[in-house]
Amino acid sequence: MKNITLTIAALFSLSFAALAQNATLASSEINKVSQPCIKSEYNISADMVEGALKKKFNDAKLGSGSKATDGFRVYKGVVIPEITKEKMDVYYKVEDKKPASAVYLLLSKGYDNFMKMDPDSVALKNAMTYLNLFVKDATAYLLNNQIDQQNDAIKDLEKKAKKSAKDGESLVKDKTKTESKISDNAIEAGTLKNVMENEQKALEQVKTKTATIDQMDALKKEVSKQESLTKKSTKNYNNAVDDGAGYKEELAKAEKEIEANQIEQENIKNEMEAARMKLEDLRSQLNGLK
Asked: How sure is the predictor about 263, in pLDDT bands with cuts at 50, 70 and 90?
């Protein structure tokens, strides 16, 4: 795992280096007028770059800014020492260039008095450096966001694992109950079979009896009664046999469900391990930025 982490970290460093010097002087239209600006591109989604910029400005106590025209956000009367010690209005816009993005940064001394290379070359060059170094802030913001998402995913998996384990325990209990039913049913079926066989023998014996004409009605009643007893005992035994077959089907179903649950628990366990490895990798990348 260490080798994998080092490899990913090395690739990450190369990606970082590739983006470290890409800020350039460009132009952007604001209020229907083309104005000089600093443009910088990042291999990071627009929403992450936007969030990172807002966080960076908020951490620098520049406030939350406000919406301006043409998709820009403006921070008025602020000082960013890395650019200039003078107060200025900072305009920025993040352009979505899926999966990448571009930042347009305009600096104004007030109103529409936007800075130009002549006479504001120092401030604009500092702004280029500022955006070049911002890749680290954007990357950290992205990694922190991914870490939060990964932590949420792990929590969800932990809940899923707990539920699956609880379901597994319930399935085992159900299986035990079914096995108990099968055992009780086997005893009951054996008893009912003996009863049925005894009733059948009794019926055969009654049918072999002879009687006088005066005793014939009584014998018919005795035969009828024994036939009823035999029929009832046979029905009870057959019901018990059917119940036993049903319990065996329940047992087979329970065993399949337990097997499926065990597979589910194993899959969740593997997902959990993969998620934790990914989390450690993200943390390693984040620590590599410091």
From this structure: very high
